[in-house]
Amino acid sequence: MFPSLYTIRTFFNYKNVRRLQTSIIRTSDQLFVHRDSEVDNPSIPFEFNEANKKRIEALLKIYPEGHKRGAMIPLLDLAQRQYGWLPISAMHKVAEILNIPRMRVYEVATFYTMFNRRPMGKYHVQICTCTPCWLRDSDSIVEAVTKVTNCKVGEMSADKLFTVSEVECLGACANAPMFQVNDDYYEDLTPESAISIINAFKKGERPPPGPQNSPRFAADPAGGLTSLTSPPPGPGFGVRSDL
């Protein structure tokens, strides 16, 4: 017997259940086609700082002549880390350094979701809402983070400290729910621990990454180790004596 339309609507309107599809604007879906703006246009100069120039020089030595374009992603990453996001002028600078057409850089910068093509907050909070995290109530993490940052998903907070994004799987399913802040993973979250982490960033602190509210290390079983709890046997273990 099929459920009635009323039953289906009631189920999806329950506050803790969200539809599988979403209308949220995701960071990676924006600006595949460039449009000049006051903050992002070719007339705004971009130049790598001296420290990054030295890094670029070292990177380019890794690649043989004719294959320098292999350094494109590392150079784009350096540009984004220096500027906070990836403007069109930074992409042009990378094309100039590698001596390649600008279009080749556009193709890479608009394909990979790690490159942000719009101004970002100092801390980019990427909340995983893929199936494992969703089953572990990632919705409550989204709600807590957007509330404590006073920032909607896909937007930057008024103080320019935070940008909040919903993202697909970040590969820490055993530690769901989790989010990533810049380069660090924060796992085994609750709404309370998520708020505590954000408040620490507001104070200029760097809270310890990894599992929260849990004694386990990395992706160890939540209830403790169940195997490999003693030194492994030595050579010859399990080998027949008549062989």
Set down the secondary structure blueprint.
Elements (H helix, E strand, L loop, with lengths): L4 H9 L36 H11 L11 H12 L4 H11 L3 H10 L11 E6 L2 H5 L2 H12 L12 E6 L11 E3 L2 E4 L3 H12 L7 E2 L32
Parallel strand pairs: 1-2, 4-5
Antiparallel strand pairs: 1-3, 3-4
Helix pairs in contact: 3-4, 4-5, 7-8
InterPro entries: NuoE-like, NuoE_dom, NuoE_N, Thioredoxin-like_sf
Cofactor: [2Fe-2S] cluster
Protein name: NADH dehydrogenase [ubiquinone] flavoprotein 2, mitochondrial
Which range does the strand content fall in? 5-15%
Q: What is the residue-mean pLDDT, rounded to a whole number?
A: 88
CA-atom Rg in angstroms: 23 Å
Residues in helix, %: 25-40%
What's the CATH topology name of the domain at 123-211? Answer: Glutaredoxin
Please tell me the CATH architecture of the domain at 123-211 by its name: 3-Layer(aba) Sandwich
Structural class: alpha/beta
**Tally of DSSP helical segments:** 8
- The oligomeric state of the chains shown is single chain
Strand order of the largest sheet: 2-1-3-4-5
Order of helices and strands: HHHHHEHHEEEHE
Family: Belongs to the complex I 24 kDa subunit family.
Binding site for [2Fe-2S] cluster: 128, 133, 169, 173
Cofactor: [2Fe-2S] cluster
InterPro entries: NuoE-like, NuoE_dom, NuoE_N, Thioredoxin-like_sf
Task: Report on this structure.
- The protein has 243 residues and is of the alpha/beta class.
- Among the domains are: 50-111, NADH-quinone oxidoreductase subunit E (Arc Repressor Mutant, subunit A, Orthogonal Bundle); 123-211, 3-Layer(aba) Sandwich (Glutaredoxin).
- It has helices at residues 5-13, 50-60, 72-83, 88-98, 102-111, 131-135, 138-149, 191-202; strands at residues 123-128, 162-167, 179-181, 184-187, 210-211.
- A 5-stranded mixed sheet has the order 2-1-3-4-5, with helices on one face.
- Helix 3 runs antiparallel to helix 4 and helix 7 runs parallel beside helix 8.
- The longest helix is centred in the first third of the chain and has 12 residues, at 72-83.
- The mean pLDDT is 88.
- Residues 202-243 are annotated as: Disordered.
- This is NADH dehydrogenase [ubiquinone] flavoprotein 2, mitochondrial.
- Belongs to the complex I 24 kDa subunit family.
- Its cofactor is [2Fe-2S] cluster.
